[in-house]
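Incident log, structure service

09:12 report received: a user says their structure output differs between two submissions of the same chain.
09:20 pulled the input from the user's history:
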Amino acid sequence: MPAFKDQAELRHYLGMLYDEAKCDARIAPKIRDAGMIVRFRYDAPQDVVTMNVTAPPTQPGAYFDVLWGEDTGLKPTIEMSMKADIAHAFWHGRVNLMQALTRRQIIAKGSIPKILRLLPAVEPMYEMYPRLLRAAGRDDLVLT
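09:34 re-ran on a clean worker, output below:
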């Protein structure tokens, strides 16, 4: 059974993660300082999210903006495409990025070394994501 029943659910739960991460002083400055526009394309259900670190954020307290949808007008530095279930497992710390790239579970466009440099910045999100799911009453989505 897929983790997310539809696009609205994917956007809600991954959106909670991205919204907290973009304001977190342990995570967001490292992502911002990488100076890249990172786009994630999800399938089953489909959605697109872009982290824009090249412009000042529009939300107070945020280090960068997170934009949902295809029409952002931004050209990504890095684009990563995957099934939504792979993203769900990744944010639990259950997906080895290099293995997923090799197995083509994640398709990357852009510099792989730049992608790998972001990994230490996002590691705290592996703890953050299940915590947010539990706080939202979605223990059923937490991978154990």
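09:41 both user submissions now match this output. Likely a transient worker issue. Closing.
09:42 reviewer note: The chain has a mean pLDDT of 96. Helices lie at 7-21, 28-33, 84-90, 97-102, 112-122, 125-135.
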